[in-house]
Amino acid sequence: MSSSRRDFIKLFSAGIGVSMIDPKSVCIPMPEKFNLLERMLPAPKNGGFAMDDYWVWDPSVIKGEDGLYHMFASRWSKDYGFGNWVTNSQIVRAVSKTPAGPYEFAEVVLPARGNAFFDGYATHNARIVKSGEYYVLYYFGARHDEVPTPEQDVWATGLAQKYWMNKRVGMAWSKSIYGPWERSEKPIIEPRPGKWDTSITSNPSPVVLPDGKVYLMYKSSPKNYDPPLMLGAAMAKSFKEPYERLSDEPLFQFHSDGQMDNDVEDPFVWYNKDHYELIMKDRFGHICGEEGGGIHGTSKDGITWDLSKAKAYSKTILWDDGSTTVQANFERPFLLFENGKATHFFAATGSGSRPYEFDRTWNMVIPLK
Questions:
Q1: pTM for this prediction
Q2: Is-contact 191 220, C-beta < 8 A?
Q3: Alpha-carbon distance 262 to 253, whole Å?
Q4: Would you tell me how many other CB atoms lie within 10 Å of the CB of residue 275?
Q5: How many Å apart are CA 291 and CA 282, to the nearest integer?
Q6: pLDDT band at 33, cuts 50/70/90?
Q7: What angle do CA 167, 277, 186 make, to 5 degrees?
Q8: Separation between Cα atoms, residue 119 and residue 132, nearest integer Å
């Protein structure tokens, strides 16, 4: 493997019951009511959320008690490189009167709070949900004794890898979208020594069920940041209760000894009447046919998943000025639901010379028919 390919895979890890099988053998027709690509309208070029002096990532949107739309996102200063998402990120809140935006920065929600905590230096991968009277914000936190300097290439020096191995899923909650936010003192789900998820926990995708239980999908791996990365599932009786694994095995295993770079991440999961659905990113394109393209799946129990034949989404974007681009990166998919229907699709993206070498990043939005 070339050094550039290794560097690409390291950065590609930015963050998210089918076992060791040919993905095509589990594909089923996409449910009639779910046809995301056909529902996509032109994306507003002035929509979403961006900040001139910051890298922006991880869109997650909810309508607040004030009737406004609040995006929880990750940002980190452009004084550092994009690769510092794992060392310098902080979760912020931005606000818009409409789902499409543009969103205006409001506040830092989860700043660094010191290395006595699992999220002492970085917070990333925001996912906001409502559980009863509480807003619940899921994320991963990271820490390390060494603090990066702006001129440091953290992936070249190995510091980013050290932070990466300390990634742990946590959560914060508040009765108001404006806070104050109470954070979990410890991670809500830890790696398990000797299991497939022995390295980290990250990329949380929570679903609050009608009975108040919380289904949580997360990302981990049996070793480190190298592929394959895999997804697991846990359940809690309520968002403050312990999260127990639903299976000792990962939900998907697409890799083989001859092709380790075949995996998925960035799941977005929701509950549709009597079953779970998800969209997730095909990291290397061996499953849906497009590197970074989207996969759709359904499940009755959140453990055994059927994958749809149709691609869920693509990096090819039609903009509202009539132009079309193929985005170098298109990650962290998120669907905004209102009155039980998906109305807007959000994703983290950027412009630059090649994937993960950006001059600008932002959280874009695509309205849905």
A1: 0.91
A2: yes
A3: 8
A4: 13
A5: 6
A6: low
A7: 25
A8: 26
